[in-house]
Amino acid sequence: MSETADARTDRVDFRATSDPALMDSADRGEANLLGYEELYALWERQQWSVHALDFSQDRVDWHERIGADERFARMYGLSSFFVGEQKVAAELGPIMRAAPTEAQRIFLCTQIADEARHVAFFDRFYTEVGVFEEEGLEARLAAATKHTSEPFRRLFDECLTSRVDRLAREPEDLETLVEAITLYHMVIEGMLALTGQHTIISYNERLGTLPGFVEGFTNVARDEHRHVAFGARFLREMAQADPRHVAAIQRVLDEVAPIVDGVLKPPWRSGVDDDTRLYGPSVNESRAFAAKALERRLKVIGLGVRPTHAVAD
User: Fold this and answer.
1) Which of 56, 118, 264, 301 has the least C-beta neighbours within 10 A?
2) What residues have CB less than 8 Å from 94, skipping those under 6 apart?
3) Rg, Å, the chain Cα set
4) Domain boundaries in the chain?
């Protein structure tokens, strides 16, 4: 997507996650995925603090260097992450409890902690930079929700929530767990979140804006690669164990592909050609980045398939 994104994903700490999307060998279906205990150990080594970040220059940039139209455009990506992190943090509990092994559950507990820290990161950024005037986390989340799109809300509030609710009632339903992790780790985190993160970070690095945010969001992206590596490991094991799980993975990808495409195209770009660059890469460049990452992960999982919708073309 950009030279800065390549430099970031080439970093030792990013590649240490074993996310197949970061490995050229994954094009051949080859990747040395970390085990669950190794992923837990990596989580301990990759700790960071929200409250160690300095947002003083970010406040100046937001109010004095970034124009009103661009602030409005940026709010779609920022708010989608702020709200999305809160939603996935709330949905992880049933997924964690349904995981078949203790090692999987322990790692997923670390992911719950990560997602909570990501919410705290965005809340501190919004508060200290002065993005919103609302008081309290709930009020700021409600204000941010107004900047999200209908496909975004459908993906989280319908597709993900329905599966998590089913797991809460029937934690032994392994097929639903496979669907939930496909949706959570491969689609929401692996396609949407990481595409948006690398886009937003690279854009700010190129302009020299929001340095505190860039530092923190880079840590968030590294966390997400570690989460996706867990998802790839889990789904590879499930695909090898039962062909029904392969069908479940593909079923989810086919179901949500048009919704994913809607999330990748912000509402404020309505009427703008998908090849046009505005505040970062074009929609088609984002689609290609997301599709390539998914393709590599699926090959390592053991599926030589991709979503049938245009997002993967």
Assistant:
1) 56
2) 164, 165, 167, 168, 171
3) 18
4) 54-312
Give the pair of three-digit tokens for residue 18: 């074993």
User: Using CB atoms within 10 A of its CB, is residue 269 exposed (0-12), middle (13-18) or buried (19+)?
Assistant: middle
Nearby residues of 118 by Cβ (< 8 Å), 6 or more positions away: 81, 85, 89, 220, 223
Q: How confident is the model over 26-84, as pLDDT tens digits? A: 999 998 999 999 999 999 999 999 999 999 999 999 999 999 989 988 888 899 999 99
For 62, 66, 242, the CA distances from 185, given in Å and listed in that order, are 31, 33, 20
Are the beta carbons of 36 and 101 closer than 8 angstroms? yes
For residue 92, name the pLDDT band (cuts at 50, 70, 90).
very high
Distance between CA atoms of residues 205 and 214, nearest Å: 7
Nearest to 284 by CA among 272, 297, 294: 272
3-state SS class at 147: coil
The structure's pTM equals 0.92
| Contacts with 177 (C-beta within 8 Å, 6 or more apart), sequence order | 95, 98, 99, 167
Contact residues for 99 (Cβ-Cβ < 8 A; gap 6+)? 105, 108, 177, 234
Determine the Cα–Cα distance for residues 86 and 292; give it in Å rounded to an integer: 27
Q: In whole angstroms, give the CA distance from residue 113 to residue 222.
A: 14
For residue 213, give the H/E element and its range: helix 211-241
